[in-house]
């Protein structure tokens, strides 16, 4: 009896699967195939190279964002702020990075609009060539970076990279401007981080002195000082002041 029941079940499953197989054979399933073929047309080879370069740029887009925008300064300042308050992972890294990204877009929006109007849209409309579009896109970014880079950093990299002294900062290549810009951004971020640490350090010292005078040496001062630091930061509207200083410093 059990064998007959098993045979019946298998027969029903086979009958149910037959329409699906027939439907798959009649309708056809989509397939994706990749192949590398030889070509004698230079135009096809140029298109392939452009696609490879585009994929490379997309893969390096996060690094380009960090190196050529104000993202580095903003995210380092937020990290110092969180460490100064002593809230450990609050706000989380996702929140700080998201806020830094939106502030970067807000600060860099005039530059992005200039790149879009002078390089991207004319190139998409076939008004300019690819080389001209690249030059028009690099120029606004270079101007922004030069406005926030000291001559000291520019001279440092220019002295090792080129033998002849450039006539103006605009004549420098991006391989010199980008590392000089990043060093300048880190310098400003650390200066602002130091200013954020000072009032919080004062609160820690006052709380530690009070606990020592009361003989409560086994109680960690951080547990007592952190609520006072959060209260001070909220009372002075700290997020507004920090964001305002960042935006004013990047104008």
What would your notes on this structure say?
The protein is mainly alpha-helical. The chain has a domain at 62-196 and 238-249. The protein has ten helices and no strands. It has helices spanning 2-27, 42-59, 61-68, 71-85, 93-124, 130-147, 151-161, 174-213, 221-235, 238-249. Helix 4 (71-85) packs antiparallel against helix 5, helix 6 (130-147) runs parallel beside helix 8 (174-213) and helix 7 packs across helix 8. The termini are far apart. The relative contact order is 0.09.
Task: Give a quick precis of the structure.
This protein is mainly α and 251 residues long. It contains ten helices and no strands. Helix content is 78%, strand content 0%.
Descriptive key words:
251 residues, mainly alpha
| Uncertain parts | 5-26
Number of distinct beta strands = 0
Distance between the termini: 86 Å
In percent, how helical is the residue content?
over 70%
* Number of alpha- plus pi-helical segments: 10
Mean pLDDT: 77
Query: Structural class of the secondary structure composition?
Result: mainly alpha
* Main sheet attributes: strand count, strand direction, barrel closure: none
Order of helices and strands: HHHHHHHHHH
Rg measurement, Å:
30 Å
Beta content comes to under 5%
Shape: elongated
